[in-house]
């Protein structure tokens, strides 16, 4: 299954037109990443592993009693990991995930087809397939950890939908005071 995903805090704006603004630009050296992936701290690590392997085609790239790293496979750079809350290597601060404030977007070629496939496989659907005015056909399921999985297909947005969202507020210039 060909699938791409991104962890998102806000809705995916991939279909939105680009806007020029005065956002800061990078002109200093930055870190060179070798990889980036979310780690969900959960008591349901095995259930999450099985959910993503069975229903989304992920592959187990590494597994231990306290951690599992899943790769999208096929040379794709997409991955997600799950960790038990009781392992001492857990960084300070991340508590067990409670299902709030984060969702995972899996971008696919045909959301309606994936919806039917998952429904027939018995996956509980939390949000039925719908065409959204911002330019996505999507549906949602919840993984065993409580993470919302937003399965999306990019489509054309409704005419004018993005217009009110493309205005960029200019920050006040403190030198003008």
Order of helices and strands: EEHEEEEHEEE
Secondary-structure class: alpha+beta
Low-confidence stretches: 1-20
Global shape? globular
How many strands appear in the DSSP assignment? 9
Largest β-sheet summary: 5 strands, mixed
Strand-residue proportion: 25-35%
N-end to C-end Cα span: 57 Å
- Average pLDDT score: 83
Helix content: 10-25%
Count of helical segments?
A: 2
What secondary-structure arrangement, pairings included, does this model have?
Elements lengths: L3 E5 L30 E3 L3 H12 L2 E5 L3 E5 L7 E5 L19 E5 L3 H10 L4 E8 L3 E7 L5 E7 L23
Parallel strand pairs: 2-5, 6-9
Antiparallel strand pairs: 1-6, 3-4, 4-5, 7-8, 8-9
Question: Can you describe what's shown?
Answer:
This protein is of the alpha+beta class and 177 residues long. Helix content is 12%, strand content 28%. It has helices spanning 45-56, 111-120; strands at residues 4-8, 39-41, 59-63, 67-71, 79-83, 103-107, 125-132, 136-142, 148-154. A hairpin with a 3-residue loop joins strand 7 (125-132) and strand 8. The longest helix is centred in the first third of the chain and has 12 residues, at 45-56. It is globular. The protein starts with a strand and ends in a 23-residue tail after the last strand.
């Amino acid at each position: 299954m060909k699938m791409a995903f991104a962890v998102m805090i806000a809705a995916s704006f991939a279909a939105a037109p680009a806007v020029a603004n005065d956002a800061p630009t990078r002109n200093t050296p930055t870190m060179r990443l070798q990889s980036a992936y979310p780690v969900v701290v959960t008591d349901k690590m095995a259930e999450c592993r099985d959910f993503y392997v069975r229903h989304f085609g992920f592959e187990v790239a590494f597994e231990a009693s306290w951690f599992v790293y899943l790769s999208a496979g096929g040379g794709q750079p997409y991955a997600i990991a799950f960790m038990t809350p009781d392992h001492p290597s857990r960084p300070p601060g991340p508590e067990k995930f409670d299902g709030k404030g984060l969702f995972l977007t899996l971008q696919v070629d045909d959301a309606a087809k994936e919806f039917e496939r998952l429904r027939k496989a018995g996956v509980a659907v939390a949000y039925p397939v719908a065409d959204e005015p911002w330019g996505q056909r999507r549906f949602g399921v919840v993984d065993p950890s409580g993470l919302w999985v937003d399965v999306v297909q990019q489509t054309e947005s409704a005419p004018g939908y993005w217009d009110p969202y493309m205005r960029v507020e200019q920050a006040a210039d403190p030198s003008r005071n």
